[in-house]
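Re: Re: token formats

Sure, here are both.
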Amino acid sequence: MKGFGDSAFVTGISGGTVRRLLAGGASIAAIACATPLWAQDQQVGSETTAPAEGNAVPDADAAAEDIIVTGIRGSLQRNLDIKRTAPGVVDVISAEDIGKFPDSNVAASLQRLPGVSINRSGNRGEPQGITVRGFGGDFNETLIDGRRLSTASGGRSVDFTTVGADFVGQLAVYKTPDVTVSSSSIGATVNISYPKPFDKMGERIAVTAGGSLQDKAGTFVPTVGALFSKTFAGDTFGILGSAIYTRRDTETNRVFVSGWQGGRYAPCQLAGSTAATCSPTADASSAAWATPTNRREIIGWYQQQYGADQRYTKDERLDGRLAIQWQPSDAILLTIDDNYSRQTVNTNIAGFGMWFNQDQLRNVQLDENGTTVDFRQAGTPTDFTGAIESSLLETNQVGANLKLQATPSLRFEFDASYSLSKLNPDGRISSDNADVGYGGLLGTTLGVAVTGDSRNSFPVLNTFGPSGNQARWTDTSVIGSHVTVRTAQQNRDEVVQFRANVAWERDQFSIKAGGMYLEDEYSLQGRNTFINNHWQAYAGYGAPSGQGGGVLIPANLLADRIPTGDWIPGFEGSLPPELIAINPFLYQKYLEGLGNPQVQNIPGFNAGCCTPPFTGTFDLALDPGRQNIREKTYAAYIRGDLKGELGGMAFRLNAGLRYEKTDIASSGFGRLPTSIVTSTTDPTLLTVIFTPEQSVTTESGYDYFLPSLDAKLEITDTLHIRGDVSRTLTRPSLNVLTPVLNIGVGQRRGALTATGGNPALQPFLSWNYDAAVEWYYARNSYFSVNGFIKDVSNFNVAGAQSQTINGVIDPTTGQPAVFVVSQRVNGPSAQVRGVEIAWQQVFGDSGFGFNANATFVETNRPYDETDLSTTGFAVTGLANSANFVGFYDKDGFQIRAAVNWRDKYLSQFGQAQNNSAFGAEPTFVNEAIQVDLSSSWDITSNYSVFVEALNVFDEVQSTHGRYSNQLLDVFAYGRRFTGGVRFRF
């Protein structure tokens, strides 16, 4: 029996014809649906692993004697072969052997490729997403065996921490599109291929068992998995099943500034002012305006909130896969598969924070850029926080693929899939929070000094403790209740996809045409204690703070402490000596144990706080911000592939056209504010009162033609040049297409915010140009240079403007309330251009080699830090990067060192707290370099051991705002060590 490839169904024809078909043309769809190369003794290009159309590897007879199939070198050779023969720009990472992918995380492997960088989760340091040629997140489409995967996050991108790398067969990154698959990614299309039973006939078993240890967490946690594959009935029926359980524990120290807000100071607020009184105002009609030193006219940025916390995260993931293949004849192949994943993440957080308001700051010192580097704020409260965050993400994708070979030249393919992703389907609480502390009469005349750069220092508290007494920093006799935040989020994303293709091939010409239907329905709803205002039920910090609200917390609930010495390695700065680790469950239980304030008098209860009235339990109320988005996309496409000679040199031309039409129906619930009231027990807290909610529904749509042209010329057998032109699009995230304005019930003084969706958003559009030179100068070695240009229009930007809403009055100023409203709009155009350089070298049969690459990018729309408009714009994600992997692979022993560097880049517009008068403030990620080591040893042909060390030099992750000394976050997530054994039979 013969195997199937997308380029041709291999029927009972001559071996020479088989080899010609295997070496013939390629497409992205082929790799998407083709079986990966993962068997230990399998020859690259063999009949059982025919790669898909257009990405074929060299003739099997020519390659069999030279290619090392398993290990690092075998994997690199397979990757090189696909890159060499593909019509477009493609980079590939293949499994080194059954059950042996190069990295434990898919994104960690992808960052080894030219032009690809990773985005790390600050909490865990895990690679969470990728950026390709400067385009991250939603600009990159991730497919599973050629199919869209649902994501309950609401974005287009896949969180790679939810995708296990164990038992993955191959990763392919397509930087130029194939119109028969998709043109919905300006960055790249990433296809993850899983193994199937016909990859290797007979019986195959792979087992992995091991564990990992993060140095800060100090807990060894397990990983165990197994894969079984077997073919039956004369190799006409096969079944493959795999399952793996993975756990990662991580302890992370963090220092944060939740937002650098831009605004204007009055001269009386600055250091050295001799003004007798200080009443900052921007209202020219007010009495205070008559005194020039009160006029807010001096531009400056200040910290909205400063603090530190420690996070302990337990990440558990279960991945399972079942694949069945049936080939009743040489002309029919049916594949049915099911991929399941379940990830549970629980995080315990303990920290502190201080809140600041610009009009209350005094003795302010500004640097030459306007950054507030020192100040004092009288009466500053101190909050100690404890939180337990929990999420469950469950995703299942089932698909069926039928291939029919009608004649030796004509074939058909039908593919259907259904994917469902659910966030917290069990209705769990997403976050339980305890917030305690002191303020009011015990408020501190506190300041924060910025003494260095965000790359190596964090701000320093210059006073702290009750009334500035540092010795009483954690004095339990004055610590009382503040706020109690509880949230529960449930999202659901459902994707239905159908695809049908017909392909005809004759000699050196082939044509493929078809259509696709994809329906994506995303819905979300949340519940929290903000809507009913129960979060403020015991605000005020208790009697010692003298604000009339709150109750003292028993000392036994505040007994657990966390020392803060050596908090962030390599960083200068100082923190108070310890944190309080308060359990939010015990805190809430204590407050609820006080009774029902509606039937008894409870001193410290915030009377009249809540609607409906607080009856003694912190109930969650349904958030009216719930929404439902349904997106339907219809596509038709055609692609032709011509192979021949030009001036005696092998030449290939691939041309295609894709038409896409998208219809969007968006619904939600809207309401308008009618008034704002202050808390009777805490002057920093505000409550917004609303009109009844009303249902809002809108419909919109768009359609585009998306052409693509790839040309490749083989000047010699080893020297190739290629050029590509295409048009691609990236759709807006589903979660920004809501038709309603969302205003939070609970607000903070001086920080009124609102967010609005825009269901009429059009997609990003890009014309893409690539030109490459590739030199395959030796076995398993090559050097390439690839230049690219992307002309992108219709950028979706987060516009922000200050405005009044429904004429409500701000009770803290007596003036119309000014909200900072953030909403995404279609905006400007920009060009991104760059060059990728890649070099792979294996030194003969010595076992030594390396793989290195570097990417240099730039844009005509860089960030302008002097632009103070509320609609400032720049291209995000752009950063120079470089990767180097050096290895030794011989006689069953492997060792690998990987170095990954990424320069500073603009990550996004917007910060955790973004109430700046100058619109959405930027978030920059600082330059980072990480070194990882791994090694394995084949004890026997069936048994091997492995070890891995990640982040060997204890690199931290840090971000900053508009200027480099405006630290936003710094995470120290430590090193991780992994070890275990593998069996394969």
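Second one below.
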Amino acid sequence: MKKIGLRFWLILCSVLPALLVALLLGSYFNHKQQQESALHLRERAANIALSLAISSQELLQQQQLQTIKLLLEQAHRLNSPLVISISLFNAKGDLLLTSNTQHDLSAEAWHQNTAKPTHLSYLDQQQHLLVYQPLLKTNPLRDIEPGYLLLQFEQQQLLLEQKIGFLHSSLLVALALFLALCLAFYLIQKLQPEIHRIKKQMQQLMDGQYRVRAYPLGIRELDQLQTGIMQLADRLAQFEQDMQQNIEQVTSDLQQSMEQLEIQNIQLDFAKRKALEDNRQKSDFLAKMSHELRTPLNAVIGFTRQLLKTPLSHHQSDYLHTIQKSANSLLNLVNDVLDFSRLEEGRMSINPEPFSLRDTLNDATELLAANAFDKQLELVLIVDPECPDDVIADPARLNQVLMNIAGNAIKFTEHGSVVIRVTATTLNEEQTLIHISVKDTGRGINKEKQARLFDGISPIEQNDQQTGSGLGLLISKRLVNAMQGNIGFESSPGEGSTFWFTIKCQRHQLTVAEPLPLELLEQKTVLYFEPQQYSREATLQLLKSWGMHVTVCATKAQLQQAISQNAHYAIGLLGRAVAINQVNEIISLVQRLKTHCQHMYLLVNTLSPNLREALLSSGANACLPKPAHMRKLALTLAQPYHQPFLEQIAPAKPSLYPLKVLTVDDNEANLKLINTLLRERVQQLDSARDGAEAWQKTTQHVYDIIFMDINMPVMDGISACQRIRQSSLNEHTPIIAVTAHAMDGERARLISLGFSEFLTKPLDEKMLHYTLQEFCQLQKNPQQVPDPHLTTIPLIDWPAALQRAAGKPELAQEMLLLLIKSLPQSDKQIRQAITDNDQQVLLHALHKLHGACCYTGVPRLKNLLEALETQLKKGAHIKLLEPELYELDDVIQMLLEADTSMPEELLQASNITVAQA
């Protein structure tokens, strides 16, 4: 804003009041003068009109028109030039006489439109004043209406006088303004020197000259201002002196402090270098120690796995599994420490490469399934159909981050589900942002832990039973940041958590994954039954993306309705949560649906080969673990449309197993039934009629498995189970609860109390057989003493090969020869990957060879490849897999030297089967 000077203010304060006063007074007097002039003109016009009206009235009555005309002309001359014309009109408005014949007012429009006047009236025009004067009546009752006079007066003189008055007023205003300006300039000339002196004093203060000279001023206020300036100058001089002293003191102190800081900086520099060196040595030590620890762990884990392949007792197998589990936990901890040390040193590299996103995600989810099954959790992978599959990123690091986050979700979730969702956002033509979220229904994370969740190792609460290195999320965060992504979570205590992370990927133009036989599945009708919501959503989305017509059912009522509406389906897909006590129910359901479905498949939440084998015996074509691996599911569903299956041979009659079993029940009939069923399966059988007697027997004998009733006198089954677990010879023996109470949640409650499994009454032979297979180390031929050379898996299983070739010997032999022909090239790739220490190349080579084994009868090679592939996907180092890799090399060499001709008896049997068909 522009500031206004004192000169302007003085002029304004002097001129503005004078101007306002002059304008008001001039306007007032000018207005009064104009009013008086107009009033004077009207009074004069009224006098002339009245006198003429009186004179004309008498003469008009006497009909002396000539005299009236002379009178009007005489009045016109006497008042000229004020009067322009005087006209006499009769009562009808007709002109009788006029003093100025050149101005005939009767023809004017304003006159014709004007009403007849009844009294003296005026009509103002721009230049003239018209006066209407009616003639007077001498006898109002007798005389008719008289006429009237119209006088036209000139107003030019009046206007001139008004202009002269306005000019006088303007001159008066100008004079007032002039006098005000003179006064203002006088005041300015008076104040300007004093103000200049004060400005000069202020400038001296601003320049640091505090000895200011005093000037005599003629104005009291300015004298007071000058006195204040002089006092201010004295104070500033005193402040400057004090400040100079303080500055000198502070400068001296600062110089000393700078010298001390310089010394401290040198010391800090030495300390920093020492800390960096110590940190480097610590990282080197961690890396070396991790390597040194992995070397003996390699032997422990490798030879433990080798030892588990030999015939062992129940306790020996239990001890070896404990050793293997502890060694794997220690190996995971060592891997976390090694990754952390690499991250600190900046040696954790990101190696982008083309890969199949869906295969990688399905492989990772498949590895997580075992832990989810142990806790009866629903594990689901849902990939958006719009998400690209062929991308360029680091699949190993992506798999590591997903395993860390999803593994934590499973670890801290006791019941419910863990859902992995994958979506993609297109950034441009070449780049895609992959978004992966893991939602669980666990206990959630409190606000105190949320702030430091990604900081690494954090203290574990006393009531927290979960353990771990605490480095997984820290490593995941750094890996995600290295892949140009972000990581975060949302959690509420008691409501679960949702962890998410994003990575930036390049799109790959070529297809990396092996093609799926989806053309064989198009337009196939599918009857899909799945009670679990998220599993149903994921599998349904997958089946529809393959072009299949799916009828989905969530309840048995919907299933019954679907069967009644369509009695035949090409494929039946049954998804169920499996426990031993539910096997018979699932088998019954499979056999019921098989009459309506050409091919029947199971999706179950178990990896137990015994349970899956039992379910396959019901007539199902295949049994896959949940969540269904996309590739395995597609290949399994499409397999019947390559070649028809060979009907399975009926299983042989079961023999007695070398097991010692204890049965406990207070009911004589129930005890007799279970003993009768078990005597057909096991060699030794003991019985007890209450929990106390059972506990007494377990303190004297070692049993392979115990079947325990719950409701019993003296000591119930729960108390007996807890006593056996605490103090007996059977602390680790499987104890199976047997009860008629099949309420929801009963199984989970009993397992939490120490039981290994839960069976409902009434029992049957199949249920007991499945239980023995699941919890006991059963041999294929229980009557014989197992021999390591006799019980090994066969190198070539011709019956299995014949089954996969739809009973065609030529096709089975041809497929085996194709596999053996590809072995040298595969062996070369595997050896080169081991030499280069490249886990990804090795995993790809093993996966490719594993896929080729699925259609031939080489179970030993297939199982070995499956174990190696699983360990590599879990992140196991190549050096830790040396025993299995050596064994793989031996198996390949044995196959190259093996006899590939089919036995004559199998060849004849297959020909007979084909002929009968």
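The radius of gyration is 58 Å. Confidence is low (pLDDT under 50) at residues 458-469, 644-653, 779-792.
- S.
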